[in-house]
Amino acid sequence: MLTVNKHLPAARGLAAALVQRAVTVSLDWDTRSKSRFDANDSAGRHLAVFLPRGTVLRGGDLLVAEDGSMIRVQAAPQAVLQVRACPAHGSATDLPRAAYHLGNRHVQLEVQADYLQFEPDPVLADMLRRMHLIVTEMEAPFEPEAGAYGEGGGHGQHHGHDHEHTHEHGH
Question: How many Å apart are CA 64 and CA 2, to the nearest integer?
Answer without folding.
Answer: 10
